[in-house]
Design brief:
This protein has about 450 residues and is α/β, with parallel strands linked by helices. The chain has helices at about 15-35, 55-65, 75-85, 100-110, 130-140, 160-165, 185-195, 245-255, 305-315, 315-335, 370-380, 410-420, 430-450; strands at about 90-95, 125, 145-150, 170-175, 200, 210, 215, 220-225, 240-245, 345, 355, 360-365, 405, 420-425. Helix 5 links the parallel strand 2 (about 125) and strand 3 (about 145-150).
């Protein structure tokens, strides 16, 4: 693969490199000409989530497009390296989405090439108050999800219930850090270690969150990220799997790349220096390693254009996370000051954590006369976007009618979240004007809806 100039290089003003530089400069001019929309309270939309892009993101995207290298390449390598350094892990593999990342992480842990693996039919501990694709890979791989209830203050798993759910059939724990709020990693990691269970951290909503000073995702056997526009940074569609275990990283790459045994990057050949020297399975000796398959895999590779945007975005991650925390704190203080806690239970950060808040979750109290449908309708009519807590209770979703799963105890808090919880935005595109309008609207709503 030909090496192209990185952004900031100074090629000659003539020839392809000079034209490239002119195009990149014009892309910045174009972005600047777009301007910034003026916020008009009550007329301008305030989405629950969104992306924040600048001229550098467009420049990276255009630079990648000019390569005409349409699969993973130089920007993918750079983005994976920057992610690894940011999170503090050894291996990062980019993929097409956070959902694909969850599928790859779990599938790799079932690989026959592992000496200790998750067997089909095994039980996997998780929660039903989740996004579907945190749990779907468990079922898609022929295993049984075991659901326990959540802590109403953090919306995360209750570790004591997790401990009680372990049986001789349990092989793994797969949980998300709900809305960017880390679950209790001390206790969950301890349970996994004592019972010899794999731990998969779904960090799709939580990039930038820390627990005892370490980034989430650095605790489990594998972890996942999503770069959908709603998340802390975006590549449009996109995701990543990461791990500190080199053998597991190779398996994740295999499942991502058609199930092949070869580990050559796109455009490279004979990385192992014995491409025609392998003898695997019942294949003839010397069968081309690039066409040797050890797993029933997928093609879940991302493009270099997606990764290029990620390179621009990750440079702004700290600022984005800081703004999310600031917006969350602003809303929480205002809700407390305006007496809105009488009607809404506010979320709490997990002890020892610094969340990277994905949203501002609210649960209507049992004592409040407010109905969620009325609350959401009032907000949406006034251009304030809302979202429910994902699937609410997965076991009550139509897709689970014929699924084999187990529930430990009952799920009262999960059901309450399904019936009474929702969240509003804290993403970094929201500033003082939007937050002030949101608070004023909540105060007016309570006055209007409460007798």
């Amino acid at each position: 693969m030909n090496k192209k100039p990185e952004l900031g290089d100074s090629p000659e003003s003539t020839g392809p490199d000079g034209v490239r530089r002119k195009i990149l400069s014009l892309s910045q001019d174009y972005f600047g000409a777009l301007g910034t929309p003026v916020f008009v309270p009550g007329e301008s939309s305030i989405p629950a989530s969104g992306k924040v892009l600048d001229a550098s993101d467009l420049e990276y995207l255009v630079d990648s497009a000019l390569d005409l290298w349409l699969t993973s390449g130089r920007f993918t390598e750079k983005f994976e390296s920057l992610l690894a350094a940011t999170v503090g892990v050894k291996h990062v593999m980019m993929t097409v989405s956070g959902s694909a990342a969850n599928l790859l992480a779990f599938s790799a842990l079932m690989s026959p090439k592992l000496s200790r693996r998750i067997e089909p039919g095994s039980e996997v501990l998780t929660v039903a108050a989740a996004f579907p694709t945190t749990v779907a890979p468990i079922i898609q791989n022929g295993c049984v999800p075991v659901f326990v209830d959540i802590d109403p203050a953090t919306y995360n798993v209750r570790p004591d219930l997790l401990e009680a759910a372990v049986t001789k059939e349990t092989r793994a724990i797969m949980l998300a850090h709900t809305l960017g709020n880390p679950f209790d990693l001390d206790q969950v990691h301890d349970i996994a270690k004592r019972h010899d269970l794999f731990l998969v951290e779904d960090c799709c909503d939580a990039l930038g969150a820390t627990y005892r000073g370490r980034h989430v995702g650095a605790f489990g056997d594998a972890a996942t990220l999503s770069f959908y526009p709603a998340h802390q940074i975006t590549t449009g569609e996109g995701g990543a799997v990461f791990t500190n275990q080199k053998p597991l990283a190779r398996l994740i790459e295999s499942y991502r790349d058609w199930g092949r045994d070869c580990w050559c990057p796109p455009g490279d050949e004979n990385t192992c220096q014995k491409r025609f020297g392998w003898q695997l399975g019942d294949l003839p000796s010397g069968y081309d390693h690039k066409y040797t398959y050890t797993h029933l895999g997928y093609n879940l590779k991302a493009t270099d254009m997606q990764a290029a945007i990620g390179v621009g975005q990750i440079a702004k991650l700290d600022r984005f996370v800081h703004q999310r925390r600031t917006n969350f704190d602003t809303l929480k203080k205002a809700f407390e000051k305006e007496g809105l806690e009488e009607h809404f239970r506010l979320a709490e950060a997990t002890e020892h954590s610094q969340p990277s808040w994905f949203g501002f979750p609210l649960t209507i109290r049992d004592s409040s006369p407010l109905l969620r449908t009325d609350v959401i309708s009032y907000l949406e009519e006034r251009k304030i976007g809302t979202r429910l807590l994902f699937a609410g209770n997965l076991t009550r979703q139509p897709a689970f009618e014929n699924v084999n799963y187990r529930i430990v105890g009952e799920l009262p808090e999960t059901d309450k979240a399904m019936e009474r919880s929702f969240w509003i935005g804290v993403w970094p595109g929201l500033g003082r004007e939007q937050l002030s309008y949101m608070i004023e609207t909540f105060v007016g709503m309570v006055r209007h809806l409460v007798p």
